[in-house]
Amino acid sequence: MQVKICGITNLEDALTAAENGADAVGFIFHPPSPRFIEPQKAAQITKALPDRLVKVGVFVNEKESFVRHTFEHCRLDMIQLHGDESPGYCRQFPKNRILKALVLQTEEDVRKSEAFDVAAILVDARHNGLYGGTGRTADWDLARKIAGPLILSGGLNEFNVPAALEVVRPAALDINSGAEEKPGKKDSAKIARMMRIIHSASAGETPLNIFIGRDRT
Predict the structure, then answer these.
(1) Domains present along the chain, CATH in parentheses
(2) What is the pLDDT along the chain (217 residues), one digit of tens a residue?
């Protein structure tokens, strides 16, 4: 089971994620988010991280040029499109580098997800105009119907992760608010406990390799 710790705003939290076995960390380049990070600061952090830790940039309805520039400047490995980007917009980037976040409210939303030719679909929840990191739980019943590789996000914490794994059986988890002291600051003890729970629950399974570094195709 692969895990991404998202909403990283400082080096300490990124290193804590790595030390506890996370596969990836996410940097949110969306100013309205309470976990927003400037690209320059993110670039400083990524330089200090181990190569094995996959660095993901999270973008919301941005221009293609900004996404490409930030990807290179921050030496990111993957791009997470977390807004209302179309399948055509996603096709401007290499498939195996793109994660597309969707909110599932109906069966029709599940069918529409099939139009996205991406490495994985990430299912999240929105609230009060925020595109993610709301602490709200995604619709697990709809999420489990996604046909391709699925990353489950939305309100995951140490108390509901076991049930999420059992009910949805995703390929990977994306953890944000459930591992925080406050928005933008992670709780090292929560990260450690959640990673132990996840690794224990998925012991013996062969993980689907969704999060990939820049040196791999």
Answers:
(1) 2-201 (3.20.20.70)
(2) 999 999 999 999 999 999 999 999 999 999 999 999 999 999 999 999 999 999 999 999 999 999 999 999 999 999 999 999 999 999 999 999 999 999 999 999 999 999 999 999 999 987 445 554 555 789 999 999 999 999 999 999 999 999 999 999 999 999 999 999 999 999 999 999 999 999 999 888 888 999 999 876 5
Burial of 175 (0-12, 13-18, 19+ CB in 10 A): buried
Can 74 be counted among the known catalytic residues?
Answer: no
What span, in angstroms and rounded, lies between the C-alpha atoms of 8 and 204?
Answer: 29
The secondary structure element, H or E, covering residue 4 is strand 2-5
- The pTM of the whole model exceeds 0.90: yes
Q: Which of 77, 124, 139, 174 is catalytic?
A: 124
Active site residue: 6, 23, 139, 174, which one?
6
- 23 catalytic residue (yes or no): no
